[in-house]
Every structure is written in structure tokens, then in C-alpha cells.
Amino acid sequence: MSPGPGWRRRGAQWSALAPDAEAMRALGAEVAAVLRPGDVVVLDGPLGAGKTTFTQGIGTALRVRGVVTSPTFVIARRHPGPGPALVHVDAYRLGTTVEVDDLDLDADLADAVTVVEWGVGKVEGLAPDRLEVRIDRPTGAEPGAEDPEDPSAGTRTVVVRGIGPRWAGLVLPPA
To answer: What is the value of pTM for the model shown?
Structure first.
């Protein structure tokens, strides 16, 4: 697989490489092309992996208003647009599914695309059908870690897996 936008199917999942932030946004935009109101996307990966950057690509493709930034301190931010709104959630500080329920995210599900960073193990109850996106980045002395001190350095691996019947037959643009 060569670096840069472009998806490759591996069994029931799709993977791509993002050598920089621009490529990560492009991958997010490509995923946005298959999203519709009511969809839930759960993002997972270490700090600095590119979860918010990926979400910026989704927001740009959905043509939402406002700058998509990390909702770390506000927990959830709604970005309206001419199509489906983007509800961007950071569940990092949420410890339980009860705290997630307190956000009333299900109130926006019907007319929005909901993207949840750090949502694994916390938001699966929102929708039985969802996309799970895992973003990994090289750290330390791993190959591809151009600068171990710079979390923005290094080519990321993005893996998308559809859960539930909504995502049966998921197709992303090939490399």
C-alpha cells in the first residue's frame, strides 16, 4: 500500500495511509461521501493520531458551518450545515455510558452525522449500525516516526470497519 489517500479492502475492513494532515482530511472527506443523517462514526486511536483532523475532513465534505476543532473541553459541539449537521463529541473525559446518555446525543441522531472521538466502549448503544475508525501513528523508534517528539509527524494508518446491516457492502474509493 503506497502512502496517500486511497482505500484498500482487507476482509470486512478498509485501510489507507495518511502521510500528513492534508491526506488525513482527504480520507475523512472520502468517508463522509458514504455518510447520511443518523450515522454514527466512532473514532479510536492514541493522542495525536489525527482523530480531529479526520473529523475536519468529514465536516468540510458535509459543508458544515464553523471550524471543526477538538471538543475536548466542551465535550460535544454541533455544526449545522446545508445537509446533515455534524455532531462532534470527545468522550475522553466521560467515564461511563451514563455520562454519555446525559449528553442526549440520541436527540440529534436523526438529522445529523455523529462522530465520537474516544467512543469505543462508551457509545455503541447509540446505534447498532456504526462505522468504527481506528487511527494509529508511529511512535518512538517505530518505522515512519520521522520525529518522535512531534505528534504530528509520521504516516498514519486508518482502518474503517462497518458494524451492522447499514454498512454491509461498504465501498470506499480505491487507491
So the answer is: 0.87
- Rounded CA-CA distance 54/105 in Å is 20
Q: Is 4 exposed, middle or buried (0-12, 13-18, 19+ CB in 10 A)?
A: middle
DSSP-H helix ranges across 36-85: 51-62
- For residue range 46-71, list pLDDT tens digits in order: 999 999 999 999 999 999 998 998 88
Q: Cell for 162? A: 462497518
pLDDT at 175 over 70: no
pLDDT at position 149: 61
How far is the CA of 113 from the CAs of 78, 96, 140, 147, 170, in angstroms?
A: 10, 22, 35, 34, 17
**Domain locations in the chain as residue ranges:** 14-165
Distance between start and end Cα atoms, the chain: 8
Question: Hey, which CATH number is domain 14-165, 3.30.1330.10, 3.10.580.10, 3.40.50.300, 3.20.20.70?
Answer: 3.40.50.300
Question: In 10 A of CB 66, how many CB atoms?
Answer: 12
Distance CA 18, CA 161 (A): 17
